[in-house]
Amino acid sequence: MKRMSTSELNEILVKATLSAREEAKMNGVPIVYEENEKMIKEYPDGRKTEIIFDEKGKKTEIEYP
């Protein structure tokens, strides 16, 4: 089996990520990712919220610009 270079692997990962995002959007499912060291939930309509957990583990979502 041929070994992949780092750039080839990176290209595959980028394509897989884009494919997963498109599939989630088509199925009406939000995606969650990290941006600027914050956990972001993006809905199929483009709306974004920041997910925050308090010290007791309670989850809160606030509008993200």
Query: Approximately how much helix is present in the residues?
Result: 25-40%
- How do the helices and strands follow one another from N- to C-terminus? HEEEE
Distance between the termini: 46 Å
> How many separate helices?
1
Shape from CA axes? extended
Main beta sheet: 4 strands, antiparallel
**Strand coverage percent:** 25-35%
Number of strands: 4
Report the mean per-residue pLDDT as an integer.
Answer: 95
Radius of gyration using CA atoms only: 16 Å
Low-confidence stretches: none
- Order of strands, widest sheet: 1-2-3-4
Computed structural class: alpha+beta
Question: Would you give an account of this structure?
Answer:
The protein has 65 residues and is of the alpha+beta class. Helix content is 32%, strand content 32%. It contains one helix and four strands. The chain has one helix at 6-26; strands at residues 31-35, 38-42, 48-53, 59-63. Strands 1-2-3-4 form a four-stranded antiparallel sheet. A hairpin with a 5-residue loop joins strand 3 and strand 4 (59-63). The model has no long low-confidence stretch (mean pLDDT 95).
